[in-house]
Amino acid sequence: MLRLLELNNSQKLNSWHGSLNIVYALVDGATAVTHQQMQAPLKVQRPFYPEGAVCHSVILHTAGGIVGGDKLSLNFHLQPKAHTLITTAAASKIYRSNGLEARQNILLQVDTDACLEWFPQETIVFNGAIYRQDLRVELAPGATWLGWEITRFGRSARGEKFLQGNWRSHTEVWQQQHPLWIDRQWLHGDEQIINSPHGLAGNSIVGSFVWIGQSISTDVVEKIRTLNSTVEQGEIGVTRLNAGLLCRYRGNSTTEVRNWFTEVWHLLRSSSLGKPAYRSRVWQI
Amino acid sequence: MTIERVLYLLQLASPALPVGAYSYSEGIEALVEMGIISNAQSLQHWLEQELRYGAIRLEAAVMVRTYHAVQNGDIEALSYWNQWLSAARETEELRSSSWQMGRSLIKLLVELQPQVLPLADAVGSCNYAIAFGIAAASWKIEPLSAVILGYLHSWTTNLVTAGVKLIPLGQTAGQQIILNLFSDLTNTATEALTLSDDDLCSCSWGLSLASMAHETQYTRLFRS
After folding, report:
1. Shortest CB distance from A193 goes to which of B92, B203, B212?
2. Taking CB atoms and an 8 Å cutoff, what residues of chain B touch A236?
3. Could you tell me the residue ranges of all domains in chain B?
4. CB A16 within 8 A of CB A41
5. Which tens digit of pLDDT belongs to each residue from A100-137?
6. What Cα–Cα distance (Å) separates residue B162 from each residue in A239, A274, B11, B70, B90?
7. What is the ipTM of this complex?
8. Nearest to A180 among B50, B87, B212 (CB)
9. Subunit contact A184:B88, Cβ cutoff 8 A
């Protein structure tokens, strides 16, 4: 008991409380960072413009991974008409916890006619990790948010499964105090849940791709449903949301899920945003 | 519970309640087609997992909030939780099935008890769990744990009936599954009573993929 207490205390002392506060605004026809505040281990690299007016930002976690007791807080605010694409420099790792929960809070504020494309790389949840993420999008009327979340449970390449621990990932999109999409996912590390067709069906990777802010016509949904040629192993599904679209993946390959999501993204980008396809240089796919 | 209240609960939880529950399988039709549910054991397992970690557990917890909101005359809370549930539905098909059943129950309730009308108007497109909570509170059914059991039991009976038809299974096997789920029903009912708002979360990968598959299933008997 004493040893456990000591462990918990040392984990508490070494825990990170990193934060990011970044504001984007449209300045002279292009989106620029107008305010930024960063606290280690979180950083945002200098913005770059590979496709004209859209501002691309890359988030960096300089400590390599998240341990129990860490609290990360990320705030991004897009002012009216700003257009930003945000990704992460590497996969996020959530290490095995010795008792404390690690938390990440993300607030994305997207003002009128702004568009935020949110494409972090995958999160690897180690066996025994206790993690909770709360991502909240405040979407103004006319604004668009699209994003994906890809999670690997256990370091599956070495045969590790998520048999212990707890993972919660709550994503909520609100518009003027009304919920547009609420997705509060929970996975308890347990052999039966991991193997059940109701849970992971023996797979290690799940992913969601979501587009919210504009309703999607049934024609576009039908077209998206035919974009399945790159998916061989995983299970996929597409459905309409009240003001958008949702795709889910459950399988064993991050390449497979990323390729599929990218295809869907590119189709929506050209049909609804009038933007050409783009592949981030940091993704290496 | 007084004997009279038992009768109200039986009526509300009855498969004969004209809300069209029998036309929904909540993804089970797709799971049977894919061979994932193929016998009594796999059907029971699916329902067990759904009760322990799934969407129905959340629905029950939201139904509890509705019941309290009606008791407190809190129309704002009623509307909030209805919007919350609509935004949390896994798929378009599950959202429309919940709205259709909710609409039918509210319509029936307004005809039987016109004083419910202001609540119905305030809520708008009403999810079934919300309509059920409104009905239970208006009929003053108590204790609340019995209301939750009634809600979960009618859900279970409906999906077992769908499974019996689709797999197919014998009627006795279907009844046995319901009996086997009794401990899960009571556990989930207890949890639904005490879950905090912050703890409203579920494991919905299996259900959302099954329901998405059902949305494009070529031949189907059920509407979800």
Report:
1. B203
2. 209
3. 3-9+22-208
4. yes
5. 999 999 999 999 999 999 999 999 999 999 999 999 99
6. 23, 45, 21, 32, 20
7. 0.96
8. B87
9. yes
